[in-house]
Write a structure and sequence with these properties.
The protein contains 1 helix and 5 strands. It is α+β, with helices and mostly antiparallel strands. The chain has a 5-stranded antiparallel β-sheet, with no helix packed on it. The model has no long low-confidence stretch (mean pLDDT 83).
């Protein structure tokens, strides 16, 4: 099937623990020793996922997209 994912779907048990209500949560994989403290924004979405990504302001992202694509 064109464009399909070659990987398999697997079960990955996980746990989230509140460290600071509405601000910080601990993510833990139950299948490995992987964990990260996640910073949550006022909108309830992750702001910072250490070692992987950090959310940027929309205006900065739009500017970067415009420079890369010429429009969006």
């Amino acid at each position: 099937m064109p464009g399909s994912c070659a990987g398999a779907v697997v079960c990955n048990p996980q746990r989230y623990t509140c460290l600071e209500e509405g601000r910080r949560y601990l993510y833990e994989s139950r299948a490995s020793d992987f964990w990260r403290e996640l910073e949550i924004g006022a909108d309830g979405l992750v702001v910072d996922y250490p070692d992987f990504w950090r959310r940027v302001k929309a205006c900065l992202l739009q500017t970067a997209l415009y420079r890369a694509c010429g429009s969006f």
